[in-house]
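Colleagues,

Please find the record for the two-part complex below.
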Amino acid sequence: MIVTMLVIVLALGALAVLYFAVRSRREQSRLSIQPVDLEAFRTLSARDDEFFLRGKLPNSSFRRLKRQRILVTLRYVSRIAGNAAVVMRLGHEAHLSPNPEVARAALQITELAGQIRLQCLLALAKLSVEFAVPSLQLTPAVLVPAYQNLRENVMRLGTLETQSLVPVAI
Amino acid sequence: MSVQSAIHTIFAAQLVLLGLLCGVLLIRKGWKSFPVFAAYSLFNLISGLVEFFIYKYPKAYFYAFIVIESVAIILGLAVVYEVFVHLFSAQQALRRLATWLLGVAVLALGVLGFIVIQMHGVSLKNVGAGIIAAEEAARVLEVGSLSFLFVCSGTFGLHWRQPVFGIALGLSVFTTFELILIAMRAYFGVNPAAGLNIARMLAFGLGLLIWIGYLVAPERVQASDGIPERSQLEQWNRAVMELIHQ
């Protein structure tokens, strides 16, 4: 009886996953690139003043302030993650282009968008932990390997010849 | 219409749909992009015809059923892997991580399958129950792997091409209903009620319709804002990188 129930629960969970997959595919096709104010994002994510605020403000005020800040940052990161998904979709379509240069460039951009998406997931995880425990500040060392990986990726892209994408028929 | 004739009618319709699916794969050259799925479809068609001709001979049917189900499950798992390869074809970095995650998921599902077999208390004396338990465990693995692919693609924001999505969706629909029915059969006994047989056939028929539909329907061209320039992408990348590095 327990096994049957367990298996049926697993199957029902799979059906729920299917439902959300069909719905999200339909929604994904309607998503478009949202503007991101990178300067504001950088200002928001700069934490130089955190030690100062921690020393000056009472604990409860500091926690509230940090959580508010994290919530806004989360929105920015989610937007970048969403944009990365849109770019991945567009790049995926363009990489089937008969023009080999377009296909190659699209592939590179898709790869980079995938990297950004992955980094966003890491950032979201890190921010979520900090939201739960505001006094915690995750050390860079935890994410150094990921950071180095990404830096190498950007450097590799930098060495590629600069070419802008021509309009792609998709 | 008697239950038996209903089963015959659905079975015949299933064979027609399988023939249609194989035809679509052949005409649209789908076998080039999806060789494993094409082999899976062809195998189902041939095995369906074999079953159709030998179902009157219980002993032969029993052995044929074991072989056919085993091969179909292995091919089904291979189709899942083919879907995985297509899904991550343009994503080398994500593919490495996803391969690792898929390995862990398959391992966990394998353990779950083993637990299912153990909890059924299968013995060598009861071959029928043993087959059902093994089939249930294999379907747990198949359904779990497919669900993992859908969850993974959502998390990574991957884009599903229409035929790939159709193959995964059709296989998921069939295997999920199959899993529910096998679990019920394991609970109620080896000799299934006719209703369970009909439900299984209808689930496979639904899967076939999804496969044919997604393979035949033209892929929708989506309105796009155009791909952003690489410099813009690098800017996003750098901003996120800075955030992570803090």
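Chain B has a mean pLDDT of 84.

Comments are welcome before we finalize the supplementary table.
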